[in-house]
Design a protein that fits this description.
By secondary structure, the chain is mostly helical. It has one domain (2-252). It has 11 helices and no strands. The chain is globular and about 60 Å long. Belongs to the ABC-2 integral membrane protein family.
């Protein structure tokens, strides 16, 4: 059964990835907005924000990476919605294909596409002056955190794609996710924020993830932030996966 599922998922993931390679502009478009945000904040607004001795692009990059993922998963919801509307799920169900492999194919495609977008954004940040003395282990820890974050948001995107009534609705769920880093420590220290906003910024998921990635890049102790970040990512992933599977069974049952 497991071999059957893995084989079907591999075939369907290859199908989705071929669609991506035929529209590479999707990945580029996903990276354009985060790069534009970096350009705006680094060269226009960054001088007015006190981040201590760290250069502003170093301070900014972790939050921009999360925005990249949040904007990228919208395409997963969009592609899933189109597949449902085209009737391809019904056709696959009439074939000996593992049912969950259709969802996993979209999730793995999202992971690959988002990783490519993240690499583009990091390269743009390097061109703007980003530098890090982090070793291989720290970079792998950053990559692992981003993979977990991407998987959690992608399964949320699956829920949106299964529940949407229109193409616009399939992508609209990502707007709050893209906006969330702006009310965190991603762009400015939370100490500068008024009371209620500061409390929210310090206790929402993005801040602990941003602080973990920032400290890994800066070769600083991550403290308890990494455990909070992992709890948010893993908890969100498990919850979103469970809801997505239930929504899928209702939609295709």
């Amino acid at each position: 059964m497991t071999t059957h599922l893995l084989g079907d998922t591999a075939v369907l993931t290859g199908r989705s990835l071929r669609h991506i390679t035929r529209s590479v502009d999707t990945i580029v478009t996903t990276a354009v907005m985060p790069v534009a945000i970096m350009l705006l904040f680094v060269f226009v607004l960054g001088g007015a924000i006190d981040t201590g001795s760290s250069s502003y692009v170093n301070y900014l990059l972790p939050g921009v990476l999360l925005i990249t993922v949040a904007s990228g998963v919208a395409y997963t919801s969009y592609r899933l919605f189109l597949d449902l509307q085209s009737g391809i799920f019904e056709r696959f169900q009439s074939m000996p294909v593992a049912r969950s492999s259709m969802l996993w194919a979209h999730v793995l495609t999202s992971l690959v596409a988002n990783l490519v977008s993240l690499v583009i954004v990091v390269l743009a940040a390097v061109a703007m002056g980003f530098r890090s003395g982090a070793g291989v282990a720290a970079w792998l820890a950053v990559a692992g955190m981003l993979v977990l974050f991407t998987l959690a948001l992608t399964w949320i995107a699956v829920i949106a794609g299964l529940s949407a009534k229109s193409v616009e609705g399939a992508a609209a769920f990502s707007y709050p996710l893209i906006f969330l880093p702006f009310i965190s420590s991603a762009f400015a220290p939370t100490e500068s924020m008024p009371g209620p906003v500061r409390w929210f910024a310090e206790h929402q998921p993005v801040t602990s993830i941003v602080e973990t990635i920032r400290n890994l890049f800066a070769q600083q102790p991550v403290g308890s932030d990494i455990w909070t970040a992992l709890a948010w990512c893993v908890g969100g992933l498990v919850a979103a996966y469970a809801v997505a599977i239930m929504a899928y069974r209702r939609r295709t049952g």
